[in-house]
Amino acid sequence: LEFYSEAAQSTTGFTLPKASLHVTALGIDEQGSVWTGHAKGLIRVRQKSAWEFVVEDKCFSAAIRVIQFDGEGRAWIGDEAGKLKVRG
Question: Where are the beta strands (DSSP E) in 1-87?
């Protein structure tokens, strides 16, 4: 996975900590953190280039397909089975 910063005009590569975590959704919050959705949950990449597991949530029964952020900084996450979760 690579993250391109237009402001810095540079690309940063990240290695997924588990080879089985294929990216199925992508979102970028107001702080510039990159969120990636997977079949087993979420990983968030902070600006410091470190992977952080945010949640490996059993409530999702299918691959995460959407990550959106509202004006209050909450992440709205939905899977392909129609389940929705809000992280705030």
Answer: 2-5, 10-13, 25-28, 34-38, 41-45, 51-55, 64-69, 75-79, 84-87
Write the pLDDT tens digit of every residue in 32-42.
888 888 877 77
Rounded to 5 degrees, what are φ and ψ at 76? Answer: -105, 120
The whole-angstrom separation of Cα 88 and Cα 72 is 8
29 Cβ partners below 8 Å, 6+ apart? 35, 69, 73, 75
Query: What residues have CB less than 8 Å from 47, skipping those under 6 apart?
Result: 31, 32, 33
Q: What's the one-letter identity of residue 70? A: D
Q: Cα(25)–Cα(66) distance, rounded to whole angstroms?
A: 6
Dump pLDDT digits (tens) for 6-58.
888 888 777 766 655 778 898 888 888 888 888 777 767 666 666 666 656 66
